[in-house]
Amino acid sequence: MHSRSYPTTRPIGFSPLEISTRVLHRVVDMHASEAAFLWKQRDRATYAPHFALRHLSKLDARLLAHLEGLTVAGEAGWRAAQAGLGEADAGALFAAAYLAFSTQRAQLMTQVLRIAASAPSFDRPLQAALAWLDLDRLQPTLDRLSASDVPDFRRLALVTCTAHRSLALSLLSQCLRDDDPVLRARALRAIGETRQHKALSTARETLSDSVPICRFWAAWSVALLGDTTGASVALAASEELPNLQVVAINVAMRCGDPLWARDMVRWWASNPSLRRTALRAAGALGDPAAVPWLIEHFDDPAHARIAGESFSMITGADLKYLDLNRDAPSSATDDVPEDEDLPWPDTAAIREWWSKASPRFTKGHRYLTGQPVSRAGAIRTLRDGFQRQRRAAAIELVCASDASVLFPVDARADWQCGRLAL
Q1: Which of 245, 350, 372, 399 is the most buried (most CB within 10 A)?
Q2: Is residue 216 situated within a structural domain?
Q3: Which residues contact 61 (CB under 8 A, 6 or more apart)?
Q4: In this predicted structure, what is the pLDDT of residue 87?
Q5: In degrees rounded to 5, what are phi and psi of residue 163?
Q6: What span, in angstroms and rounded, lies between the C-alpha atoms of 202 and 146?
């Protein structure tokens, strides 16, 4: 009996080995572009008045998924992330830095650092990428950066450790003695963020520094560490630093002497050219006695939205959720970027709401999002409030309790939830 031979044929499809090694470049490119886009959206969201932690959590989960896709793709992932760097895109720099430092490959890290040094706009995405990585994985690199002759590298090490709220006193002390004023200013800020009481004397000594940015952050940290004199110095220093005036008002009204803070609000309110400052400061001070005055500004297109935000900061009323908002008036302009995402308050509806809600507020007391300023109220706002309210709550928490650090409201959302035990 003769055996019959059959021709061998290749199986249809791919073997498991072939599947595991194939790269779908179109998908990898999508991961890179989406990661870059989402980081820019996320970076803006951390300062937005309509984003809460629950929104950040969803956004961060999407961003992490695309970063994981790039990581799994290996060299193809790096090439896709690298391709966006030629467009001077901050989001692409974030994705590339995340990949480079997560793998700890010296050549890739060096390339990212070189590109980041080419434009000031790359500072934030580079710092954010390192803040999103586990500190243990970064420690060898941070040790090298902190010992570098390049001030920007030493500052990157300081900022990363501060973002993780794990700053060694030795590194802080080294940076406080540095000749570079930008690095020294960042170290002075870190004193308050990480609540380094042992460095308080250094911050106090810097309150008369000739460099405004150093003087400002020294005063800011002094105020956060419980010395009310820092509040007035920070406010005065911010006159030379327009970009920090909102930060100055926030810390001055919340950490300064209450009587002095009330006098400052009255003085600003008496000056028409400082009306916007007064409206913002009234919300930071938190006294419900200012609410009727805030409502008076709801029909003024130039001040309506900032007055509405201060109203919500004190009362906790979500204007959109409670249908207390209206369409923008025909005379409205969007020439103030910080007002862009704020609702337009409906004067009549809010007057009616306040007539019912006002009995539960006591004039002369301070409130944050509808509750008397306290540790419990600050934690509640950190859990449920919007980002600007959460920044305020982080300051109130250190003022109302012995919190070990300033709560990082722009950190990775899953890490924030862990701190809040959510």
Answers
A1: 350
A2: yes
A3: 413, 414
A4: 74
A5: -60, -35
A6: 20
